[in-house]
Amino acid sequence: MLAIGAVFFFLVPAIGAFSIRRKWRSFRSRLTSSAASPVATYRRLRSGEGTTDQAAIGVFRFFGMLEAILENDTVWIRDEDVSLSAELNDVKVYLLATGVALSEPLDDEKTPVNIPWSKVGSLIEGTKVFIHGTLFTDAGRAVFRSSPATPLFVILFDGDEHDLSRRAIWTGRQRNEYWNHLTPASLAVGSLAMIVAAYVALNVPGFGYVARAAVTMGLAPVLPLFPPGVAFFFLYRKLWRDGRVLRAERDLVMLPIATALGDHDTASLPGGEQYVSRVVSREELDGLVASGLAIQDVTIRPRDDERWYAFGRPADGGIAPPGDPIVPGVLIPGEPRRLSVECARRARSYEIAALLVFFAGLVTNMALVFFLLGYVVP
């Protein structure tokens, strides 16, 4: 019974949990790595006009608005400079939640939806689209297509495109990895197996305690929701949510480094724009915010609260938001790498505490149920 419980209540959901974490880690990594690719512009496409039909022009990214959807899963996307097409058959797209403010608590309704293009349904003209992948030439037109090396990465979103990367990093993670696509079926099979084991044990003299144990374990998936263990369950949810917020903040403070700077204090973006990191004082914050830089709030504040780090393009002796929408213009209250390490460390502490609290409530309720079953099953 212990082996059955371990497999269906823990091992199978854990496999799904690692799969979910890997999926969202890949989503965030693909978004940040897309910043290294140039934006598809009319000038760049003109430079590739001599390319042979069906040949790849290169890997590009593109912000645009939906212009038309054709019957063969081809869409036309336009910006102020150029119109492009994209073949989305067999492509899974991400739908970014509408109206997400970066100051809002994370919740499951804000997690991007990842579905095949064929199931997206109707979209209105003007829907905003971000796409990253390989551009090909086809009958004189430029078209995005998936390739083995670079499958298409597509996000449908609303709002300012300059907020896309921060919104996607903030929301691009599962609320609770344990509850994933494998969990419901696994819990159902495990509970059914325990019921069968209890039935068999009841028909064997002297195995009443085994039947009680089997029934107790079969009820394990729902026991955390009943008193007295439910108090532990709510505390577990709070601790896990706090850890999740810290993991999101870990990624957000590293976003300027992940998208542009790497190990340097200055970088040249694909469009030729300069991007810099600069230490600033609190007295400079108001002027930098007025120039358009956003303040990145973090739960953990360093002891030296006077040193802030500004990221953006040089402008008139100061710093302003870059023109590149993927790369953030942001103010961070501390050295990003140190903040990232501390956020990750604190997040792990919260997650470990959450699991200990959860199991404390589960064991409490299981012990109570096993004891009460003694009055029914001798």
Give the topology, please:
Blueprint: H1 2-33, H2 42-47, E1 56-69, E2 74-78, E3 83-87, E4 92-95, E5 113-116, E6 128-138, E7 141-145, E8 153-157, H3 164-171, H4 183-202, H5 208-218, H6 230-253, H7 255-261, E9 266-268, E10 274-280, H8 285-290, E11 294-295, E12 308-315, E13 318-320, E14 330-332, H9 336-373
Parallel strand pairs: 3-7, 4-8, 11-14
Antiparallel strand pairs: 1-2, 1-6, 2-3, 4-5, 6-7, 6-8, 9-10, 10-12, 12-13, 12-14
Helix pairs in contact: 1-4, 3-6, 4-5, 5-9, 6-9
Which of globular, elongated, flat, extended, rod-shaped describes the shape?
flat
Number of strands: 14
Model regions low in confidence, pLDDT < 50 over at least 5 residues: 103-108
Total tally of structural domains: 3
Terminal residue distance: 19 Å
Q: What order do the SSEs take from the amino end to the carboxyl end, as H and E?
A: HHEEEEEEEEHHHHHEEHEEEEH
Oligomer category? single chain
Helix tally equals: 9
**Largest sheet report:** 6 strands, mixed
Tell me the helix content: 40-55%
The class by helix and strand makeup works out as: alpha+beta
Mean pLDDT: 88
Strand content: 15-25%
From the alpha carbons, calculate the radius of gyration and give it in angstroms: 26 Å
